[in-house]
Design brief:
With about 400 residues, this protein is of the alpha+beta class. It has six helices and 18 strands. Helix 1 packs across helix 5 (about 185-195).
Length: about 400
């Protein structure tokens, strides 16, 4: 009886995976909606990533491994603006440091899921961020599962099987899928139902995201893109794509979905909050140092500008004083010249007047002859008079 109940339970889950339609548009990467211009979707090497903050990009650890490794990324890795299609002519943001979950484990011995497949790329400068992002907590995720809240993912991977033949990575637009979140138990039941198409034994990750033609499906290149729930202007980040995929077509014409569609298994990023906080601390310290350098440069520029202004003011003051002294000297010289000219004119006038007076006086003089006995004397004056003892002749 117990086995019968379990079978019915599994069948019910399969039916729900097949028939469930959310109150959101059908969308995905394969069979998806164009998401050009999205504020968080970024290209990471030949795969995808999610812009968590202005200097932090979340991606999958295996994406770092498959695109050159940590050493390459910390020396030459770049990220472009989110939401772009082509990379040519776009601004690049250099990577500074890469943090990988210390418990990350790649596929091994036929076990397809990657364990703790999470990495962080820290950038040297900021990418303008238009929205708020928070890492979803365990309580958030439980609520999303309970309410079957729409979960989205935007990736830069392949979009159809024909692109495998004419592959031009770097020219794809970001594409969006919208599905929902299922619990670990539902994910385990999916594997049980699809035992014929999924190799066993397989590690079962914490949560699953159904893939289908209705919801959309992951393809190569979508690894590292982030699953998230959007509420108003806040995106609740769940975890990166790429940990495990089961029963999906992966943009191949010869493959089919599993029973009930396909399934993406994810590990929640809240497990790696210590790593996230480490990245945030590195960014905060970088910004502190940059601010100190910028502040020092600002103060130096202000001091230089002040010194230049003071020197300019002193030069202007000196020039003004010299100009005033010159003007004063010129004024004094002018006044002196005017005074000398006036004095000369007055002297000339006085001399002229005296000469004229003398000439006039000369005209008025008369000459008389005075005698005293046998003595004779002539007297010339305006009113000539004979000296005492003399008589006018």
């Amino acid at each position: 009886m117990k086995r019968v109940v379990q079978i019915f339970k599994i069948l019910a889950i399969c039916i729900s995976l097949i028939t469930l339609h959310l109150s959101v548009p059908s969308s995905a990467v394969e069979y998806g909606q164009d998401a050009t211009g999205d504020s968080n979707a970024v290209k990471v090497g030949g795969a995808s990533g999610f812009l968590y903050s202005d200097r932090i990009v979340f991606t999958a650890a295996h994406v770092i491994d498959s695109t050159g490794g940590i050493d390459y990324w910390e020396k030459n890795g770049v990220i472009y603006n989110p939401g772009i299609v082509r990379m040519e002519g776009q601004k690049t943001y250099r990577a500074k440091k890469v943090l990988v979950a210390p418990t990350y484990r790649d596929r091994i011995n036929g076990d397809e899921p990657r364990i703790d497949d999470f990495a962080i790329i820290i950038l040297q400068e900021s990418i303008p961020l238009k929205n708020e992002v928070v890492v979803a907590t365990a309580d958030d995720i439980n609520l999303f599962i309970k309410n079957k809240t729409p979960v989205s993912m935007i990736g830069y991977g392949l979009q159809n099987s024909s692109q495998r033949e004419n592959y031009e990575w770097g020219s794809f637009s970001p594409m969006k899928m919208t599905s929902y979140l299922v619990s670990h138990e539902e994910l385990r039941n999916y594997y049980k139902v699809n035992i014929n198409v999924v190799r066993t034994p397989q590690t079962i990750l914490e949560y699953g995201i159904p893939n289908s033609r209705e919801f959309g499906s992951n393809c190569d290149g979508d690894s590292g893109s982030g699953f998230f729930v959007e509420k108003e202007s806040v995106r609740f980040y769940l975890g990166p794509a790429g940990g495990s995929q089961a029963g999906i077509t992966n943009c191949r014409s010869f493959t089919r979905f599993g029973i009930g569609g396909g399934m993406s298994g994810i590990t929640p990023t809240f497990k790696f909050m210590n790593l996230v906080k480490e990245a945030e601390a590195i960014v905060a310290e970088d910004k502190r140092k940059e601010f100190a350098i910028a502040e020092e440069a600002r103060l130096a520029a202000e001091l230089k500008a002040k010194q230049e202004a003071e020197a300019r003011a002193q030069a202007e003051s000196k020039a003004k004083a010299e100009e005033e002294a010159k003007a004063k000297a010129e004024e004094e010289a002018r006044l002196k010249a005017e005074a000398e000219t006036k004095a000369k004119a007055e002297a000339e006038l006085r001399a002229k007047q005296e000469a004229e007076a003398k000439a006039a006086a000369e005209k008025k003089k008369a000459t008389i002859t005075c005698v005293k006995g046998k003595l004779t004397k002539k007297v010339t004056a305006v009113n000539p008079k004979c000296p005492v003892g003399y008589k006018k002749k």
